[in-house]
Amino acid sequence: MTDEHYSLIDPKSGRRLDFPVLETTLGPNVIDVTGLYGQCGVFTYDPGFGTTASCTSDVTFVDGEEGVLLYRGYPIEQLAEHSSFTEVAYLLLYGDLPTADQLRAFDYSLCTHTMINESLLRFFNGFHHNAHPMAMVSGVVASMSAFYHDTTDIHMPHDRDVFAHRIIAKLPTIAAAAYKHSKGQPFVYPLNSLDYCSNTLHMFFSVPSDDYEVDPVAAQALDLLFILHADHEQNCSTSTVRLAGSSGTNPYAAIAAGISALWGPAHGGANEAVINMLEDIGTANNIPKYIDRAKDGSDPFRLMGFGHRVYKNHDPRATIIRKMCHRLLERLRANDTPLFDLALKLEEVALKDDYFVEKNLYPNVDFYSGIIYRALGIPKSMFTVMFAIARCVGWVTHWREMVTDPGTRIGRPRQLYVGPDKRDYLALDERG
Ligand code: CMC
Q1: 70, 306, 356, 412: least buried by Cβ within 10 Å?
Q2: Which of 152, 167, 156, 165 is nearest to 250 (CA)?
Q3: What is the DSSP code string of 74-98?
Q4: 308 carries an active-site annotation
């Protein structure tokens, strides 16, 4: 807490009310309004939580004005260049970069949890072959709460650790099972001699009747995408996990809630929506038409992959991924260059347009991530599932932080009620 106070005069009583200011290590300080209702009988109104800190956290810092993203203090650019996804997962979960021994032990622990219970695997047969993979994945993850009863006491540090390793290790296996089900192909078991991302590609793309060797370029690209998507402080899905978890619910159920929140096109579903949009646009000649639609307030169409609640200058993840798109499409000799060229053209036109400039609308990470997933051979409907695999690390980290924070209370927002005043029930024959 700082020595500062924010004061306001209560218009009803004329009394001066003081609210303490809480100090952050980075970013703006925060006014503690918890005493507001008690002191003057009013709530605050902040739809979308645009100016409300819902918790304290020491995991991730985002500066939207400067385009800064830090995981546990480390800039995303440095992690993207030097780290690996499982090292970043360790960093997020435990607060510091691991030693070589700690990383080996963590990777080994993840390996020992990659298989899923055979009963869980049979759940997939119950889904229609063209079910959206996010529907299957959220359903199966929620069903995990029906397993592992012996290790889901959220008050036990050991159980929380087992849960964290288990869900991070099993999510690629569940995602690959959803993919194989939609293709009508046999499920492929994890191969624990492979690293996390190679194993993910192996479970997706190998078939029993053929040899399959993971392309190291593809595994590296996936690893980088997973690093970029691993956490983003109190975003919609992470806040959902925290809110669901604040009731003390089963942790797998809380993660399933996060997966459902991620699915929407304004959040993780944007990477799929970007490719749909680029396919609809088709050629550069059509760009002005779509830009006009995005600017037309009466048209619900938005330029997908543009804009961000927090980044108002640039999304640092988009800068990293844009460079990677160039390199990767060349190295994989992918035939997706026209789509990438169209994306670059659209970006160029939008960034010069007054509407996008005035509203600070820049390409976000998901403007490019779908292009990379496509080049890796991952179908559109699986893009958000890939995002979920990466973001699961952030969800688990925030869930653990929330559960162990003595200041946590069940999430229970207030409202600005605008419904009817109190009225009396009328019998059927008395209604007009
Ligand atoms: N195209 C056209 N206009 C836009 C766009 C867009 N992509 N994004 C925002 N605007 C306009 C919006 O219409 C509004 O205009 P006005 O002030 O005239 O009403 C203004 O910009 C502010 O928009 P907002 O919806 O109030 O901003 P927000 O912070 O609530 O929403 C957003 C942020 C990301 C949901 C939004 O920019 C959007 O829908 N973008 C497209 C979807 C997308 O790419 N989502 C991925 C986000 S990054 C990955 C992740 O975090 O999951």
Answers
A1: 412
A2: 152
A3: EEHHHHHHH--HHHHHHHHHHSSPP
A4: yes
Dihedral angle over CA of 217, 219, 221, 226, nearest 10: -170
Give CA–CA dist 268/233, Å, rounded. Answer: 14
- Of all atoms in ligand 1, which is nearest to the CA of residue 309? 29
Atom of ligand 1 nearest to the CA of 50: 29
Verify whether residue 366 is a known catalytic residue.
Answer: yes
Q: Catalytic: which of 195, 231, 353, 366?
A: 366
Q: What is the pLDDT along the chain (432 residues), one digit of tens a residue?
A: 777 888 888 888 888 889 999 999 999 999 999 999 998 899 999 999 999 999 999 999 999 999 999 999 999 999 999 999 999 999 999 999 999 999 999 999 999 999 999 999 999 999 998 999 999 999 999 999 999 887 889 999 999 999 999 999 999 999 999 999 999 999 999 999 999 999 999 999 999 999 999 999 899 999 999 999 999 999 999 999 999 999 999 999 999 999 999 999 999 999 989 999 999 999 999 999 999 999 999 999 999 999 998 998 889 999 999 888 877 877 775 556 788 889 889 999 999 999 999 999 999 999 999 888 988 889 998 999 999 999 999 999 999 999 999 999 999 999 999 999 999 999 999 998
- From the CB of 305, is ligand 1 less than 6 Å away? yes
346 Cβ below 6 A of ligand 1: no
Please indicate, yes or no, whether the overall pTM of this predicted structure exceeds 0.85: yes
Do β-strands 30-31 and 16-22 pair in parallel, antiparallel, or remain unpaired? antiparallel
DSSP H or E run through 159: helix 157-183
Q: Return the exposure string of 295-318: e unless at least 16 CB atoms fall within 10 Å of the residue's CB, then b.
A: beeeeeebbbbbbbebbbebbbbb
Backbone phi and psi for residue 173, each to the nearest 5 degrees, phi listed first: -65, -40
CA distance 388 to 267: 11
Unique residue bearing structure tokens 């370029």? 217
